[in-house]
Amino acid sequence: DAGVIQSPRHEVTEMGQEVTLRCKPISGHNSLFWYRQTMMRGLELLIYFNNNVPIDDSGMPEDRFSAKMPNASFSTLKIQPSEPRDSAVYFCASTSYSMGGNEQFFGPGTRLTVL
Amino acid sequence: GQQVMQIPQYQHVQEGEDFTTYCNSSTTLSNIQWYKQRPGGHPVFLIQLVKSGEVKKQKRLTFQFGEAKKNSSLHITATQTTDVGTYFCAGSGYNKLIFGAGTRLAVHP
After folding, report:
1. Which of A100, A101, B7, B18 has an alpha carbon within 20 to 30 A of B109's alpha carbon?
2. Nearest-CA residue of chain A relative to B40?
3. Residue B109: is the preceding peptide bond cis (ω within 30°)?
4. pLDDT tens-digit profile of B23-63?
């Protein structure tokens, strides 16, 4: 099993540019989560999907952020336009959904730097 | 909203000393999970506790879930340099995890 795959691993961009982060969850997992990690705010849940449907996007900072999951094997997180305060490590995680909760498998993360 | 508080924020120990991190939730949790993140890495699942008063051990690591299912602790006996990293607790609520801020552990040889 390749685990959760994220791309790119590093992204450096200039303020105002569009940024797209990509995630491939573990095959068979039906829940996908996007997190943002910074020193100041820790690990924040941005949005999560069950069976490709967005369930809770209350953590999405503002309208500049959007996320899609067109199928069970792919999700994107887009920031448009990007700002320096968006600089962070973005993690994607997946799990098999159950009422009792299951361990989440995290990808390696995308380190985003907005200049 | 639901909050998960974790203390201490940082802990520096000499190799061989014990280490404990504590987690408290503002609400009763259905379960609690613990993750470890090595420097520069990603969170990795350690364990899940479900039952009130549950205690689980993994080698030198001991995990406890409080009777009221609102608090938890992770204790490491005789720390090693390989224990370095940030330990997160995560409370399960509404089908998502609420992560604590984490405790960063530094181990000096």
Report:
1. B7
2. A108
3. no
4. 999 889 989 999 999 999 999 999 999 999 999 999 999 99
